Known about the structure:
This protein has 350 residues and is mainly beta. The chain has helices at 56-72, 87-96, 114-127, 149-156; strands spanning 5-11, 24-26, 28-30, 38-39, 44-45, 52-54, 74-82, 100-105, 134-137, 177-181, 188-195, 203-210, 221-222, 237-244, 250-256, 268-276, 290-294, 300-301, 306-308, 311-313, 319-323, 326-335, 338-347.
Amino acid sequence: MRKILRIILITIGSLLVLMILLPLVLKGRIEEKIKTRINHEIRAVVEDGLNFVINPYDEYAVEEALRLREAKGGTVRAVSLGGEAAIPVLRKCLAMGADEAVLIKDDAGETYDSLRTARIIAKAVELKLQGADLLLFGKQAVGSDNSQVPAMVAEFLQVNPITQDGAQRVRSAAPAFDVAIDRATGRIVLVWEQLSQGGLIPLRIVLSESVDGGATWSDAIHVDQTPSNSELILEQAFVPSVEVSDDGTIGITYYNFQNDVAGDSRADTDHWFIHCHPELADCLERESWVDPVRLTGESFDMLTAIPANRGLFVGDYTGLASSGSDFFSVFAVTRPGDKQNTLFVSIDGR
């Protein structure tokens, strides 16, 4: 028997946030070849007479929602935040095959910074769109290019990793991040948890770097080496740490559920180390992060961790350091009779 999903697709644009019941989140953009005018007093585009079309990344999210519906059944609802200009984008989603469209009207005008947009979406999900199994967001808006709203919505909704057995939430690092600096070159490396392909699960570990002191940043890339799995829950990765060794090698650690087995009333969890050297490979390509090292000698059962605010909690003692070319990882696991057992593992950099 197929599980029936309710999907919400949310578009996020200068006027637009769109949700689907496999929830999907979308954003609008100004139609190409349209001459724009600027209101210099408020530093914003004059919207009178402009036509808005669907943001391309949100269009990808619509297509993914429709594929999920075809595979698993359910309903796809497109939701947009904005004024009347958002209606053509919603109509486009319906034409593509969405089952329903909802406009969250707001007459406040163009005041949709990322934080305000995320608050409105999260509140709409809580009050009007309960019961959705999945929220899909476009990766980013082509106008602002900030890719901030999905993670903010997840934080407001307290979205955390979820165990396969027991469906228990795990207290993770979101929305925190970890940062490391190559002392020789000044390269800054940032890692954090990010929602995968716009959805609320699974979580991924992503990386961005700056080589000009933080003035500009690379596009975020998915770096954890968690294998693909038909059970999306087993693709989650969470709580990243990053460090740069003296020879420039970038190391990252994280937890995942890749060795978990359904139906055994456990949530087998492991801690992993991956690395990349910028002089030997392009570290902005996922394929360059090689040789995952399992730091846990055996999987531990996350279901035995301490229940805490926002989910099961193994402790705050997680981090990565280096000396010379070697790395040193500190992380927490559970053991029989010990719900918070902190381990120290060295990784030979030679």
